[in-house]
Amino acid sequence: xxxxxxxxxxxxxxxxxxxxxxxxxxxxxxxxxxxxxxxxxxxxxxxxxxxxxxxxxxxxxxxxxxxxxxxxxxxxxxxxxxxxxxxxxxxxxxxxxxxxxxxxxxxxxxxxxxxxxxxxxxxxxxxxxxxxxxxxxxxxxxxxxxxxxxxxxxxxxxxxxxxxxxxxxxxxxxxxxxxxxxxxxxxxxxxxxxxxxxxxxxxxxxxxxxxxxxxxxxxxxxxxxxxxxxxxxxxxxxxxxxxxxxxxxxxxxxxxxxxxxxxxxxxxxxxxxxxxxxxxxxxxxxxxxxxxxxxxxxxxxxxxxx
Length: 306
Known about the structure:
Layout: H1 2-15, H2 17-44, E1 57-64, E2 73-75, E3 78-79, H3 82-89, E4 93-101, E5 108-110, E6 114-116, E7 120-123, H4 127-130, E8 135-137, E9 149-153, H5 154-161, E10 170-175, E11 178-188, E12 201-204, H6 205-208, H7 212-215, E13 224-232, H8 242-252, H9 256-262, E14 274-280, E15 303-305
Helix pairs in contact: 1-2
């Protein structure tokens, strides 16, 4: 039976070659496009789900309701003391991580003449305990243990040193106008492509707190520029408890309502139109309401390899 069907199909194909070619080509292109779309969709909707604690990790952001001619918007750039304050005020907050995206400059020097670029950022030492980025060499507990420790990815280590077992090697990173020594405390596996957080070299956030730019933000609630993630206890209702989050913001911004009115900003209702909210890390990549504060687009820093 099947042999008979194949013979008929073959004869039809040979008799109407052009039409058969068009049909087969169209079907092939359709299947290929469907497969590519399926792979793209799977990749998009698996973003950040590889973290062991993904269900309990949230990004904190500031939501501003629409007022006058300004549209509603969400911003992930938070003040430096926010993470510690959340952990202090809410028992549901088990841990927090702040990430500082580096600014200028944007070159890396190896030896005397080899100049390259490198993605550099700062994060709290507990970064590798909260997130599940794998380390090839070193441990999560000690990766950023010292203030001058840095973590480098496997691919960047091979690019710079020719091999990836580089724990203990010293580099110099240009901070402001000076080159300062740092020691590689761990080597991370290459960051998955479906991760909102991307980096090549990561420094200790506590070091950033000692430089002029960081010092201005310590305990300063009026300077924002840091991504803040919290790890909550399983089953926590804090992300949906609007009243608690509003009260928390009012505690640290007691004059915000008066300041907004002084600037001539009006809004409907009695509640201040600005509040803290939390989005699951698994929604970060697809949530278009909040600006993408991803570490993926950080500006590089200058590194001098000794």
